[in-house]
């Protein structure tokens, strides 16, 4: 199995039960070893009292991209710590795209950076996630020697 196939099978297994991302209106656009892209259109129910996308929804979009990136090796991985900086508002009707890339993966720990961009390519938020591998796999696979 190639690393790309492993990443896709892991993502498919996670996506099947990811009610939260689906409920928010996200799509999983790309996945590969240590990387993932999610997106969502900012709808009326995503808006806060200022008429812009609520920061919690932007965080969730980035967190989902992070989750698919760090789970792309067919090992169960959870978040250990995440932080986000908001740079510009998400506007009603625009598509926000969260692109996660692996920065470091050593032992059971990983670091991933996620950039959330708006429709015009501007940076909306920068997210950094620390991951921790736990016991288990997304699908049955023989251990490599």
Automatic annotation (TrEMBL):
InterPro entries: Acyl-CoA_thioesterase_PaaI (IPR052723), HotDog_dom_sf (IPR029069), PaaD (IPR011973), PAAI_dom (IPR003736), Thioestr_dom (IPR006683). Residues 50-124 form the Thioesterase domain. Its EC number is 3.1.2.-. One of its GO terms (molecular function) is hydrolase activity. It comes from the Bacteria. Pfam families: 4HBT. Keywords: Hydrolase. This is Hydroxyphenylacetyl-CoA thioesterase PaaI. The gene is paaI.
